[in-house]
């Protein structure tokens, strides 16, 4: 019987920075040839499904690069030292066309919110607490941009460990550990979780 050995990762040099035009190459390195997953390039919630499908790969990459190069800062990059190891897409809710179409994730109320649509962590760093650090950093970034509420939409599965392809919106446990609270659930598998920002968060 083989015994899995969990390699400890040193997170002491962790830092998280907004993605900007000057950091595009870091994002490109992190996402790799597959654009993080299946040629997505973090565009699946920003486009109509047919446009996203037709743009898989080069088309989606070009669309996302255009967003980054216009200095919209559509999320944050996590680093260990100088190596980019993680990504979180966080932006005003209205930037995501999927959320405008979704019945399950339609607005909770009339409050202005920022939404976390995607988390991507480099494989060697998964299941080691990086997603929690990433979520906290995303909240801090949103707070500095004037957000009052940050929402997340993690996936709930019956499995003890959510398979990586299904974990791209995050897991409830990670959101809870990052300080989020569930506010509404219209589907068994998709809670809406919120972090309400106070002045200390934005400082």
Helical content class: 25-40%
Total helical segments: 7
Tally the structural domains: 1
The CATH architecture category equals 3-Layer(aba) Sandwich
Radius of gyration: 16 Å
Order of helices and strands: EHHHEEHEHEHEEH
Q: Report the top-level CATH class.
A: Alpha Beta
Our measurement of the CA-to-CA distance between the termini, rounded to an integer number of angstroms, reads 51 Å
Shape: globular
Report the CATH topology name. Aminopeptidase
Q: Strand order of the main beta sheet, please?
A: 1-2-3-4-5-7-6
Low-confidence stretches: 1-6
Mean pLDDT: 90
Strand content: 15-25%
Under CATH, the homologous superfamily reads: Gcn5-related N-acetyltransferase (GNAT)
- Main sheet record: 7 strands, mixed
- Strand tally is 7
Give the structural class. Answer: alpha+beta
Question: Briefly, what is this?
Answer:
The protein is of the alpha+beta class and 203 residues long. 28% of the residues lie in helices and 22% in strands.
Task: Give an overview of the whole structure.
The protein contains 7 helices and 7 strands. The chain has 203 residues and is of the alpha+beta class. A 7-stranded mixed beta sheet has the order 1-2-3-4-5-7-6, with helices on both faces.
Defining key terms:
globular, alpha+beta, single chain, 203 residues
Give the helix/strand layout.
Elements (H helix, E strand, L loop, with lengths): L13 E5 L5 H8 L17 H6 L3 H12 L5 E6 L2 E10 L4 H5 L12 E8 L8 H15 L4 E4 L19 H6 L3 E5 L5 E6 L2 H4 L1
Parallel strand pairs: 4-5
Antiparallel strand pairs: 1-2, 2-3, 3-4, 5-7, 6-7
């Amino acid at each position: 019987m083989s015994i899995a050995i969990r390699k400890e990762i040193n997170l002491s040099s962790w830092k998280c920075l907004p993605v900007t035009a000057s950091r595009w190459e870091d994002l490109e390195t992190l996402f790799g040839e597959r654009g993080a997953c299946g040629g997505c390039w973090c565009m699946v919630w920003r486009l109509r499904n047919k446009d996203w499908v037709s743009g898989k790969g080069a088309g989606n990459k070009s669309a996302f690069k255009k967003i980054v190069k216009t200095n919209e800062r559509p999320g944050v990059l996590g680093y260990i030292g100088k190596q980019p190891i993680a990504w979180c897409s966080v932006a005003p809710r209205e930037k995501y066309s999927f959320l405008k179409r979704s019945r399950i994730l339609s607005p909770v109320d009339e409050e202005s919110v920022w939404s976390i649509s995607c988390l991507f962590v480099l494989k060697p760093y998964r299941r080691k607490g990086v997603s929690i650090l990433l979520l906290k950093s995303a909240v801090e970034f949103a707070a500095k941009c004037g957000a009052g509420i940050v929402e997340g939409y993690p996936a709930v599965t019956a499995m003890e460990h959510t398979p990586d392809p299904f974990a791209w919106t995050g897991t409830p446990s990670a959101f809870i550990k990052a300080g989020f609270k569930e506010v509404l659930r219209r589907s068994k598998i998709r809670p809406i979780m919120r972090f309400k920002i106070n002045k200390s968060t934005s400082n």
